[in-house]
Structures are given as C-alpha cells and as structure tokens.
Amino acid sequence: MGFNRPSRIQENALPMMLAQPPQNLIAQAQSGTGKTAAFSLAMLSHVNPANKWTQCLCISPTYELALQIGQVIEHMGQFCPDVKLAYGIRGNRSMERGTKLQQQIVIGTPGTVLDWCTKYKFIDPKKITMFVLDEADVMIATQGHRDQSLRIHRQLTKDCQMLLFSATFEESVWRFAEQVVPDPNIIRLKREEETLDNIQQFYVVCKEKEDKFAALCELYGCLTIAQAMIFCHTRSMAAWLSAQLIREGHQVALLSGEMTVEQRAAVIERFRHGKEKVLVTTNVCSRGIDVEQVSLVVNFDLPVDMDGHADNETYLHRIGRTGRFGKRGFAVNMVDSERSMDIIHQIEMHFNRRISKLDTSDYEAMENQLS
Ligand SMILES: Nc1ncnc2c1ncn2[C@@H]1O[C@H](COP(=O)(O)OP(=O)(O)OP(=O)(O)O)[C@@H](O)[C@H]1O
C-alpha cells in the first residue's frame, strides 16, 4: 500500500489493541491520520481464520463509510485468504433466516447489523470477541445510532474487546463512552492538537448567496487543480449550487441525503476515481470519506448546530476531507453575515487557531500554492 511507517495513532493504538489479555480502547486522532488502517489491522490480526463464524464486528454511521472501511480491510487482508469479510449494509441479505455467516469480520451500519444479530440471526453476538465503533462520537450522540449500537452491545459478552475511534469527542460523549467501555485504555488529544497544521484555513466575505456563487466561480481554478468538496447546509442549497455551477459549464457532482444509498455510493466512487473534480454535498458526506486528491474544502454554508452556534465537530470533520495523511490542504469559509463572522470567531476560539481573511485577489496566489 506504499505505507513506510505507522502514523502516531497506529504506533500507539496497535500494541494496545493486540495486547493479551485483550484490552478496551477509546482513541481520538486527527482526521486522515490512519485510524481506519489501525483498527482494520487489529481485526485482521485478531480473527482465527480456522473458525468459520463472525468474530469481529465493526459498525460505522453510514453506508458509504462502511463500504470504504470494507475496502481497506479487503486491501490490507489480501494476503490473509482465509479471512473473509461480509458487509452488513442495507440490501445485502441473501441467506435464510437463522443461517450463520461464515465470514470472520462483519462491517456494517448499526440498523442492519442489529437485524443480523437479532431478527435474522446471521451473527451470534456471544461469539463476537472484538467490537469496533468507528466515528464513535456520532454513534453515541445521535439517538437512533446510539439505541441500535447499545442494543448490539448489550448482546455481547463482557469479555468482548471494545474499540472506539473518532477524530472528535465532545466532553459529554467522552463521559458516556467511558461509562459503557469498561476499564479502557485512552488516547486523547488536547483541544489545540485537534486541528491539523497542514490545513490552511481562510474566510471570504460575500453578502448574498449570489455573491458566494460569484466568489466560488472565481475560486474555480483552485477547485479543479486537484479535487474539491463544497459543503452546503441544506439539500436544496446543494441542489441549487450544483445546478448553477453546471449552468456555468462546470462539471460537478452532487451528493445529498435524499439520494438512495446506492446512488450515493456510485457518486463517491466516480469522485474517488477523479471522474468529477468537484463534489457539492451536505453534512451527509462530512465524515470519514477518504479521497486523497481533495486539496480544497469550501464551506459554502458554515456548519451550525440547532441553536445557531458553531458546530465545531462538524467543522473539523468537513475540513478534514483535505490534508489527508500529512498532505497539504486548504479550507475556505464563506461568510455572508455578521452572524457567520461570529461563527468563524467561535471556531477560532474553540480550536485556538487563526482563520485568515482571503481576498478574491489572493485566489491566484492560492492557485499557485495548490499547483
Ligand atoms: N502508515 C501509513 N502510511 C501512509 N499512508 C497511510 C498510512 N496509514 C493510513 N494511510 C492513508 O492515509 C489516508 C487516511 O487514512 P484514514 O482514512 O484511515 O484516516 P482516518 O484517521 O480514519 O480519517 P477520518 O478521521 O477522516 O475518518 C488513507 O488514504 C490511508 O490509505
């Protein structure tokens, strides 16, 4: 895979995950630093290929992420021919109820995996000896995911090794994780370590959405040097923006929540292979998606929570789609009101990082840096 040395999280987490007797782990590491590879290696090392039943269960919040993690496991496991993987995702069910899966590793989304454990009984939860929660904070903080994950968790034995990973853990979520995971090893970042120095962050002031669109068109040279992701707050804004860009003659892909999971996976595959250089999307795509060539993230709308405050976690995940594994990346935030300027200040304060003003006249300099 061209990996020369482990990243810090891999170096720290692997010995803990592989130790005997098994130890639990709650681990935080910045986006794009190889968490997926770390727990994939742990699962591949953990299973006994002679046992033809599911031993490792990994759940992640979305269909796309489950597919992506599965691809990493398949790639890393290519020389372990006796270790097999099944995808516990919607639509993937061809067996008779009660027939047990022979694949040692299952990666899936919480609803389907829960059904596989309870309704269809494809998996015997009592035989699971390693349970991995990717994007663990969102799995805990989102009620639907939390209920389903806890229902799976309750069926596991108390000896099952639990591994929780994410780039962000809000304080309350961390406390909850510590209650659910007995006696865990802990790898936790200090707040100022959460952002990556290889991602330069900027903001641009534009009043109306049409001004933002004009600024984006001026930025288009930068967007297409490598690949870019543009985040909007709503599906309708993402649809409007991609239609406008297409009308201007730009080639962009749109990915939003109302599409079927198969359509979404197909859009991501095309983007991953560089068929489109620009992806317009919503928060549905803010986490985990790993496309190495993404060098620019644009927040067409800033991430805000229900109360209109800065959504710091989403911000970090969104900008983390660039700057993967030490690569250089840029994040540009579009500021359309005093309120959104306020949000920029909140994000700066939260992470103790400066977000600099970028004038449209600076775009050329940025283009040069990108190329
Ligand atoms: N040791 C390594 N050497 C080089 N590249 C690596 C190494 N480990 C992982 N990578 C690559 O780094 C990229 C990011 O890894 P990965 O997707 O696992 O990050 P992550 O920490 O899970 O990110 P996120 O928080 O966004 O989910 C991937 O393309 C992966 O192939």
What does this structure look like?
The chain is α/β, with parallel strands linked by helices and 371 residues long. The protein has 2 domains: 8-190, Rossmann fold, CATH 3.40.50; 193-370, 3-Layer(aba) Sandwich (Rossmann fold). It has helices at 8-18, 35-46, 63-76, 110-117, 136-141, 143-155, 171-180, 209-218, 220-225, 235-247, 261-272, 312-319, 338-351, 363-370, and strands at residues 25-28, 56-59, 85-88, 105-108, 130-133, 161-166, 185-187, 199-205, 227-231, 252-255, 278-281, 294-299, 329-335, 356-357. Helix 11 (261-272) links the parallel strand 10 (252-255) and strand 11. Helix 4 packs parallel to helix 6 (143-155). It binds adenosine-5'-triphosphate. Adenosine-5'-triphosphate is lined by residues 3, 6-7, 10, 29, 31-37, 167, 288, 290, 292, 320, 324-325.
Derived structural class:
alpha/beta
Q: Report the radius of gyration as a whole number of Å.
A: 21 Å
Determine the number of helices (DSSP H or I, runs of at least 4 residues): 14
Order of helices and strands: HEHEHEEHEHHEHEEHHEHEHEEHEHEH
CATH superfamily of the largest domain: P-loop containing nucleotide triphosphate hydrolases
Q: What is the domain tally?
A: 2
Q: Which CATH-level-2 architecture of the largest domain?
A: 3-Layer(aba) Sandwich
What fraction of the residues are assigned to beta strands by DSSP? 15-25%
Total beta strands: 14
Question: What would the average pLDDT be, to the nearest integer?
Answer: 93
The major β-sheet equals: 7 strands, parallel
CATH class descriptor name of the largest domain: Alpha Beta
Tell me, briefly, the overall form: globular
State the low-pLDDT regions, or none.
none
Give every kind of bound small molecule, once each. adenosine-5'-triphosphate
